[in-house]
């Protein structure tokens, strides 16, 4: 049976008597696919995850969803699941990302107000996730993993994208810089880290539609236990939207102040925190 037909059959079994239509919702950089199910009777739409079990394990997604939900973050509710087939039925957080919401603003003053509102919510959710952190429940963002990700720069950007072959001296110089970066990163306090906390993985929700409070958070299955500034840098130095340094500094200060009040492991010296932020 074709994979999509398997999914339809399963969905019909968990939603007996309901007529539905499936349409592609999104896909990510994996073998997972997402479909939006809409219903003839006007019931709220749902999202169905299709994760072929021979390619993707949905258990990390379910585990992180439980942790983040317990922290008070708004992640999709799991309405039904079949681990053997790799299907999840989820609540629908809508189709408007933070990035789309920000780009839709034509009026400059309104765009600024929208950004401040959205980022206040995103920083609040991030603080809630960090406050729920504890060791031993997520993989560690350890030296090996951080070093492997640093190597993406010479392997993919310098060699493949730019077509440049580094000399031995240049490689040694780069590795020395990486060692200094790693020393800063690994000395930071450790918290839950989403790993992709940015404008394409935060959803704009309309309370009037009953979807709940902003932001809806998605694509969290690779979460780890690691440096406290990692997600903050992902959000404020987003690859998809650029903010001037003054704005980044303002939001960083606000998050640091919130973190201190919440009892998160950040020091009383903002300059030291910002050094860690810049080092990340």
Automatic annotation (TrEMBL):
InterPro entries: Aminoglycoside_PTrfase, Kinase-like_dom_sf. One of its GO terms (molecular function) is transferase activity. Residues 22-257 form the Aminoglycoside phosphotransferase domain. Keywords: ATP-binding, Nucleotide-binding, Transferase. It comes from the Bacteria. It holds the Pfam family APH. The keyword Translocase does not apply. This is Aminoglycoside phosphotransferase.
